[in-house]
Design a protein that fits this description.
Blueprint lengths: L4 H5 L2 H4 L2 E2 L5 E4 H8 L4 H17 L8 E9 L5 E9 L1 H10 L7 H55 L4 H15 L5 H7 L14 H20 L5 H21 L14 H15 L1
Antiparallel strand pairs: 1-2, 2-4, 3-4
Helix pairs in contact: 4-5, 5-6, 6-9, 7-10, 9-10
């Protein structure tokens, strides 16, 4: 027998769903055993044991899916009595109906209901992850472009301060990285990220790491110009101190140190995708 979405929305399993004070949905084991057609709660408990075994095999914390609770239940006289029960997550219910006696009424409906509800949840989570990744990609593209712009401006400011030769500018840059990365040079960061010789470390930074480096670059440029700093040694020390100050700020805020942030995929692929999208619009 097949069930439509409308059937599932009107499902008795939907009607017994509860919402916790924190806004999470759950099902009472005492509601569930009756709906599935078990004559007594104790006959349903072996199914719960199978759920726990399955959760353990999946490396899931049982506490995240099964929680002790007290439930108000009508007894023979019609009065309400508080009895021990279990608060079951959607996933726990899904496993329970898969392990329930298939000859019991509503088990097939329960299997269909929880299978579809679980898949709906997965799709929602996948979409949320996609949106988060899309936002991260957009931030990376913007910050990487800003890094190109401000690295040029930083080079001009360093040149005005007396950092003229390419080798001197490479040393100047390393002072900034050492300040920000706790003593690590550009080469050290490159090695730590596991990059090939031809790969640029900036192309493999996530948005958080790029933002820290952008702040380092912009603040060093401004300080060099504002204080009219002259001489390679003073320029190098300025870059180091600014990098160190950015690192100190990250630490004070409880952030992750830049050298401990994950290595991102090359931004070149994102840039090509962005360029193709622009060309398709023309």
């Amino acid at each position: 027998m097949t069930y439509s979405i409308d059937d599932l929305l009107k499902s008795p399993f939907e009607k017994i769903k509860r919402i916790s004070e924190d806004g999470y949905e759950y099902w009472s084991a005492r509601d569930l055993y009756k709906l599935l057609g078990y004559s007594e709660y104790r006959h349903f408990l072996p199914v719960i044991d199978k759920v726990k075994e399955a959760l353990i095999s999946l490396n899931e914390d049982i506490e995240n899916h099964i929680e002790d609770m007290l439930d108000m239940v009508k007894i023979g006289s019609g009065a309400d009595r508080e009895l021990e029960s279990l608060k079951l997550s959607r996933f726990a219910c899904y496993i329970a109906v898969q392990n329930a006696d298939p000859s019991k009424p509503n088990v097939a409906l329960g299997q269909a209901y929880f299978a579809i509800k679980t898949r709906q949840k997965e799709l929602i989570e996948e979409e949320q992850e996609r949106l988060i990744q899309s936002e991260e990609d957009s931030k990376r593209l913007l910050l990487r472009e800003q890094m190109r712009k401000h690295n040029k401006q930083l080079a001009e400011a360093a040149n005005d301060a007396g950092v003229k030769e390419p080798i001197d500018y490479a040393i100047f840059q390393n002072y900034g990285y050492r300040g920000l990365y706790g003593g690590l040079s550009r080469q050290d960061i490159h090695k730590r990220k596991g990059l090939k010789k031809s790969q640029d470390i900036l192309d493999h930074m996530g948005s958080t790491e790029l933002a820290a480096n952008l702040f380092r670059a912009t603040q060093t440029e401004e300080k060099l110009r504002r204080e009219n700093i002259q001489g390679k040694q003073r320029a190098n020390q300025t870059h180091y101190e600014v990098g160190q100050k950015v690192r100190q700020t990250i630490e004070e805020l409880g952030g992750t140190m830049p050298e401990d942030l994950p290595t991102a995929d090359s931004i070149k692929k994102l840039e090509r995708q962005k360029q193709k999208e622009l060309e398709d619009k023309e």
